[in-house]
Amino acid sequence: MLDRSLDRSLTAVTDVLATTPNVMFCIKNTEGVYISANQAFADRAGVRSPGDVQGKRAADLFPPELVEQYEAQDDEVMRTGHILSNELEAITRPDGSYGWFLTSKSRWTDDAGKPIGIVIVSVDQRTPVDGAAPHRQLAGAVEIARVRFAEQVTVSEMAAAAGVSITQLERLSKRVLGLTPKQLILRFRLEEALRLLDSSTNSIATIATACGYYDQSAFTRHFKRAVGMAPATFRTMSHRGQTRV
Q1: CATH class of 4-124
Q2: pLDDT of residue 242
Q3: Does the 129-239 domain belong in CATH 1.10.10.60?
């Protein structure tokens, strides 16, 4: 049971985030039980309202592959106290379309510094990469990332294509797209991987190479970190019509 001061703080935060567009928010206690969520998170979990999230665990709401990923992240944050900051993740929106989110997780403590839960915020990156078009310099960097994502393209090459410094590119990309240049390249790679896994019969190794990974294990590791399941599992579920990223 939360004390009254923490309860008031929680209410203030949830009131602000209850209807904040494109932001999913939830809090779990130290046992992994959801004690708070907003409507966006309820939509993501496939339930009607935040009240339907409270008292449940991730295993009650999400497929096992995703639960394993979520709990591994939670355990790391709770154990170390290190913040998980702006982790790029692919999920499906309520309409079934793919979306990209930046997820952050932080350990929640009481006034004495004792861990009492974990706070999770995911921001929907709804700005399409084509939204960089009005920004001529950024558009050049986006285009080189789009065309050459399978190569080992560097941020310095992207900056040169945009005619700006690396620092300027980092700042502009984050402000306009919500992504760093490296995250943008990763997004293009993963989008191509999702497409090939769903539509082709190519081997995982072949797809890894086509998406810019020279090491299949690295591809599997990055894919699982972003999508929540291994490439082979995603392909199997996709072909069964069960994919829920």
Answers
A1: alpha beta
A2: 54
A3: yes
